[in-house]
Amino acid sequence: MKRFNKNLLKGAVVAALTLGTSAAVLADSLTFSGWGGAQQDAERKAYLQPAAKALGIVIKEDNMDGLAAVRAQVMSGKPKWDVVELGSTECAQAQQEGLVEPLDYSVIDATHVDKNVVSSHWIASHAYATVVAWAEGSDAPVAKNWQQFFDPQVKGARALYRQPWLTMEAALLGDGVAAKDLYPLDVERAIKVLSRIKPQVVNWWSAGADSAQLLRSREVDFLAIWNGRVNEVKASGDAVDYSFDGALLSHDCLIVPKGSANKALAMKLIAEIIKPQSQATLATLIPYSPVNAQAYELPMITQELAARLPTSPQNIDKVVSVSPQWWVENQEAVRQRFALFLAN
Amino acid sequence: MSGAGSGALNARELHSAQQRERWYLMGSGLPALLLVLLTFVLPIGWLFWLSLFDANGQLTIANYTRLLEPIYVLTFVQTFKISIIVTITCVLIGYPYAYFMIKGPRWLANLAMGLLLVSLWTSLLVRTYAWLIILQRRGIANDLLMSLGITDAPLALVHNLTGTVIGMVHIMLPFMILPLFAAMKSIDPIYNQAAAAFGASPSRAFRDVFLPLSLPGLAAGATLVFVITLGFYVTPALLGGGKVQMISMRIESDVSMYANWGAASSLGVVLLVATLFMLFIVKKSAGLGRRGE
């Protein structure tokens, strides 16, 4: 009797264990790695949680700080991330370095996404714009577009981004280069334009939060800043404004690291993220702009919200797209040139 | 005969006991040695090893030849320039401060020490942002200068070399003052009294007695400040406004730009070698090493 009970117990434990493992196998899981903070909080609400439900999977999350982290993961041979969100030129570079899996467009519907930001190995996840923003009611003259921004006669404290991308495009637009003629960038001309106003550049900011603080504290009278950041300052009641005219459109983008253990699921998750519903929901939570044009047909994007988004039908013709491809091919030399310009 | 023999035996035994004890004492340092080996010597060796390879794992010196490009040369020059300015400023401010802590009234000296420690214990990031707020265009410093009529328009105190040096000096000051304080504290006041008894004026006694005796502390502090300053990242990145380039910032940018660690490793290696070389020169030229022993 005792013996029988013991065996029964053993059997029950084994059965429970087997059931437990098979249940875990059934509930598939994958790991999404993003930039963390408010952005990832919004992404979780807008599409990670809904996608987990829709696909019947568990989505684990992690944070990273850019391409170098992905590189380290892929080099280890067993990346623990399945979908990673990178910034601007990093996806194109990851593709060039062979760090990523090709995307399966029979699963991901990219019909209504701008072809410039859909590549064989990556796809844009949302857009943001670099705009000219200025303080209202300032005694100092302010610039309200790139032409005025790069005019040394407009005497005012200004700030620019501490990277050559976006900054050089802005300089060339300010010097009268037409949007369609931007690429290939005329690097020396851009440096010349930047040199003209260099003494008036108070700060070359590197983090988005710093740029907002420069404007808020009136450390500068006008600056190049991301639309989400200046919108935050404006929404808090501060007397500042900005314009989408000539704004530079960049994108965050999604990749699947080479060797990911859950490739098929990763494709499905990306498909969910690109859906109009996901894209529109994200825009209601954080001022990142949809890449799927169909998102603007959804009622949750009100007229008022659309006015604040650079990819909306009323703004899309004013903005200028940045070319990640050009930057990947030229960044090494241009970054050195720009660093030398800054340090001199 | 037998007495001498046993004496020799005794000496041998004593000697071997001594030897055992010495080994035992040295053995107690073994865990620390292992730790240094594992966490410092090995990684440095690995860093050096990595710097010799390109992205495809081919042996190359490209990571070093690249450092001859103007941007790297300029960055090295600027890094050493800033470190020297910060070190000299720290000496000029730190020496009188430490002297005051030794000779000043007890309660004021305690206060001075307390303030120094509070500053040391405050997060580097907090102190850096505090300087940003104090020194900015509409900050306290400019308000004060303008209300006193010293200047009409706000001065550019931050987002440049000035702000960077101010912030770095503030952060490095405790590393200058504490070793100096320890060195000064160990100088017996009787030396000064002896000098006075032989007719030396207070300033003569300071110059010929106190100052030389405090030099090892000064050298220790200056070395600490100089070496730590060479690797500074956060403060110049935040207070320099993008106009100040230090090697740590180039390392960061190279890590993100190049597909291999080698490009950034070579910068680390050159910085390390340059630092060791500088320290060697300082030690030789000042002859402080012997004095410190």
Automatic annotation (TrEMBL), chain A:
The record's annotation in Pfam families points to:
SBP_bac_8
What are the alphabetically sorted keywords of the record? Answer: Signal
Q: From the record, give the transmembrane residue ranges.
A: none
Superkingdom of origin: Bacteria
What is the annotated signal peptide range for this record? 1-27
Q: Which InterPro entries did the record assign? A: SBP
What is this protein's name? ABC transporter substrate-binding protein
Native organism: Pseudomonas vancouverensis
UniProtKB/TrEMBL annotation, chain B:
- CDD domains registered for this protein in UniProt: TM_PBP2
Q: Where in the cell is it found?
A: Cell membrane
Which SUPFAM superfamilies does the entry mention?
MetI-like
**Entry keywords, A to Z:** Cell membrane, Membrane, Transmembrane, Transmembrane helix, Transport
Domain ABC transmembrane type-1, residue spans: 76-282
Q: Does the keyword Transport apply?
A: yes
GO biological process terms on file = transmembrane transport
Single GO cellular component term: plasma membrane
**Membrane spanning stretches:** 30-51, 71-95, 107-135, 155-181, 213-238, 258-282
Q: How does it sit in the membrane?
A: Multi-pass membrane protein
Would the keyword DNA-binding be found if you checked this record's keyword annotation? no
Q: Which family does it belong to?
A: Belongs to the binding-protein-dependent transport system permease family. CysTW subfamily.
Name of the protein in question: ABC transporter permease
Record the organism: Pseudomonas vancouverensis
